[in-house]
Fold these 4 entries.
Entry 1:
Amino acid sequence: MLKYLFISFAIFVFSGNRGYSQKIAISTNAVDYVNLFTLNGAFSYAVTRNMTMEISMRYNPFVYNLSGSDRQVQNKRLAFYTGMRYWPWHVYSGWFISGNMNYTRFNTGGIFSEKSYEGDAYALAFGGGYALMLSSKFNLDFALSVMAGYGRYRRYSCPSCGLVEANKKQVFIAPDNILVQLSYLF
């Protein structure tokens, strides 16, 4: 999967530049910080007047022990995304549709139940959104996407005990990104 991420990155870095401004954007998603302080960032590059390519990453190494109990909560993950956005009007302005492929290594548990899940997921995602231009250098992007993919994981009876209940492999369809993303353009 990492091979495909690097190939995608090379394609948009070495593609020819066109005669328009605002070719590059660096972004961060505020919703991910609400998700137990998941660190994240994205880099996108305009390859044509209506198309951008993007690579992004999410990282959450944090484990939280709730005060007053021995309950542990975690949503640990390392995720890599590479994808494209099509902008009907012009890059980094107005509506867009998006698609990406992603890989996620996760260890989540204690959030909605005492169960914990650890594994890998590979997926393709499709969605859309709107980029609100705040100034010539800043955008606020709103987007939603859905993913379909394949995952393999272990289910544990609790986040800290290590008692394996099951090993599973499955195909899934799930919500992917909820973006409220601040972008700096240059």
Note: The chain has one domain: 2-185.
Entry 2:
Amino acid sequence: MKGRTRPMNIASLARACALVSVVALLPATTAGLAAVDSRSGLQFTKLAAIYRLVKENYVDKVDDDKLMNGAINGMLASLDPHSSYLDGSSLQRLETMIDGNYSGLGLSVQMEDGAVKVISPFRGSPAEKAGVKAGDYITHLDGVLYFERDIDEAVGKMRGPAGTTIRLTIFRPGRDEPFDVTVTRGVIELEPVTWKVTDAVGVVSVNEFSRDVGRDVAGAIQEMRKQAAATGGLKGLVLDLRSNPGGSLDEAVALSDLFVSSGDIVSQRGRVASENEYYRAETIYKGDIARDLPLIVLIDAGSASASEIVAGALQDHRRAVIMGERSFGKGSVQSLIGLDRTSAIKLTTARYYTPSGHSVQEGGIDPDIRVPQLSDPDARLRSERAVRESDLRGHLINEISLDDKKLEADRKDDPRFTQSAERLKAKGITDFQLHYAIETLRRADSSTALAALRK
């Protein structure tokens, strides 16, 4: 059974991998520009001088738009990894991903140090079925090197008619050599919420925080209760947020509010007072929709932003056991500010904090029970080389100066998790983390019993 996908417009941009909390259309006024110029006259004079020198002396004739876009991109890129300029092509690419189906591979990608990096493959997509994983680097498309090239060019190359194929050359951290994967393009249907019932345990996978995710999860829980009623009802719920790169703050709050009945869910604090805000429980949904059921939330290194808000809220309120691997560690809020009909900037305007006041920036959410993905033969090496927020160039610094390496230090292997991927495959276990969560819920038939499993 699957949740529905609803069309969205460019203004919401909730499918963007960065957390978007505010959508504002703010025209750049002459007075505002004059105020900036009066304070930074020397810098603007230098910029204008360089612009003129390039126009007059560069070996080839240079387009004005190319120079201005480059200056804007460089300015925003110097701030942090999540502030960026979006013009017609990049806005159109996001709109295509949000507004409906398209033919392609089903990959969320970004440019990192000049390379095309996979943020995550969409679940059930041709790319996932072909074995492409989060954290992979795509170096060649059909044998052509794609390095320090426009991300839109790479995305355009990967899209195409359903049924056609493309050869990806992949560098995977943890492997010695790149390897090729041939993927057959398909029609990608964006499904933010999917669900199933396994061994009397309801499993809800939230793949992205787009519009109405909270309502879709509520509907999924109701449907799972109906399906399990004939066999004695549900024994528990698994909320799967693995490889979910984030999305709408409002939907993160809505999803948390399904299970939290009092107190704060998340707060955000910025340099500008208008960015300071507290989001509290009981503002969207009343009560706990699953108060009679124990809850496990699965996270991994690909769980970022909105996913971390939900995991942090449910962990701090002791409503769920968080299981899996440490999350990505993106604790910043981006506002989308429209410049005109064809361009906008995505600007970091605040940090967010869990109910206990913990900032996930750099450190992420640490699970109550660490469970490795033993069914993935490359998981251990990829985990050791996983790129998180703290590894990104120019990332915001956590105020308490976390040492990212110390977070992973002194972790002894858990004797419960020693089986090989081959042995698990022979038993029919293809997702060990989910399997372990379901088995845990089957053994713990109450929230009190599950609470005893926490650290």
Note: The radius of gyration is 23 Å.
Entry 3:
Amino acid sequence: MASPSTRSPPRNRQPRLRFRDERIFYYVALAPTTIVIACVIALPIIYTFALGFFIQNTLVRNWRFVGLSNYSDLLTDADFWLAFWNGVVFTVGSTVVATVFGLVIAILLDCNFRGRGPLRALVIFPYIVPSIVVAFIWKFIFSGRGILNDFLGFIGAQAVSVPWLGDQRFAMMAVILISAWTWFPFAAITLLAAIQNVPDNIYEAAALDGAGPMRRFTYLTLPLLAPAIMVVVLIRAIWAFRNYDMIWLLTEGGPIGATEVLPIMAYKEAFGLFRMGHASAVSVSLMVFVTLLAAVHFRVGARLRKAYDTS
């Protein structure tokens, strides 16, 4: 029997990786993901930037270096600025309508009433419906012989059927309303979550001080929801400015360019007129505008988070 003073031999411990070895391990582990990102994202972006410096026609496959000519031509291109302005109108209009409507729905869903649970689940429905289905439904509603014109004629509001999506005066308005309808569930669910995070004792104290519902909404609800509203607005603005599928399915940019935005213009230049260099210049310009919106999003979001943390 071994004496008590006898100690068991030390266990074999595996040596820990040093900092340099760990760093090499991280590089090796991230290498496959980095290569995939470079091939899928970085290379097409670099190719698009480079293509903007050439005049390239896919039909004859000729390349001619023109420097910044494609970009300078955009500054005097009336169609480009019309598409840019249409994008601004569409972005502002759909963002405002979707956010306001989503805020109203969020406030209503926060109230305690019977059937609130199923209604909350139903609100998300427009957001999950495929774009092609939404486009066909609303094209039928807004057509010359659609439900909207039948209803307006029934109540005596109008005597002549209006092709809403085919009329230059109303096409953009119709597209804005349809796009806002598909997006408002995101705003409603986000703002509803923000409303439910507001402590009830704040409203109780305001009610004891004699503040009515409107004053509580103006001076309590809106300031407390400002960070969430700003996030919804900025995210929607970024997505709306680069929107392509919904507008293309509804109007294809018509009538007479009334709803043509920069993504649709880039598509027509590339696959309609086969001017790949000019289309790349439009795409790069769109990328710059979206990047600026994203920069504003992160900057404003950081300031709001800082203000919220200090308050």
Note: Strands lie at 54-57, 62-65.
Entry 4:
Amino acid sequence: MKTAGFSKSWIVFFCFLITLLCFVLAVTTRVRVSEKKEYYSAEQVALYLYAYKHLPSNFLSEQEAEEEFGSVSLCLAAGYNIGGGEFSAEQREDYRDWIGNYSDKTSFFECDIYPDRGKCISQQTRGTVRLVYSSDYTEVYFTDNHYGQYEIPGFVFYSRFSLNALSNSFWIAFGVVCFAQAAFVLAAFFSRRRRPALWEGLCEAVEHFVWFCFELVIIPVCLVAYPVQILYLKYKKRKREKRENKTKE
């Protein structure tokens, strides 16, 4: 019975460990944006649009770029992106795809993304990569072929979930594992008199997990504190030796 209880407790311990791992991965893989920062990648700009309902501060309209820098290429060279202009949602015969195949909305704006800024500057062009977003900031689309002018699909929908797909997957796994473990804990609690080995195994697993978390926190602290202590003792020793040498003089 002890061996069975021991093995069960370790199984539960590893389940707790998986839960902790899912939580850590969900938090660390999360892509976040701040209103005070500048962003250039399509994914980060799309998240920014969803979160703050306007473009980051490193975006200027074409008119602002020409007024401030004299030309779009000089604006790009200064580190700015062009964006905020109105995007026509009307279907064009010379384009192979159009936004109406993806959205029922009729009012959109656009902004430039420059995977190769140097090439755009040298060729004095804005390139073909854009984000097209609805005027109410509920839909954001990515296009790297100038709105479907050259090929299909012309647009790829960037949802909030897809922009953080990895993190969201870990959050889902975390929720599922938590639910399963909560059900197991309740089952073990209500059956503790009929099956005491199950309850004992759970208590032992919790004890293992608590000690593991404690060691996980304390070991990095010790790894930092020990070298600091050595350096501090050496500093005190040198100071004492200098003081003794002055006294002898």
Note: Confidence is low (pLDDT under 50) at residues 1-6.
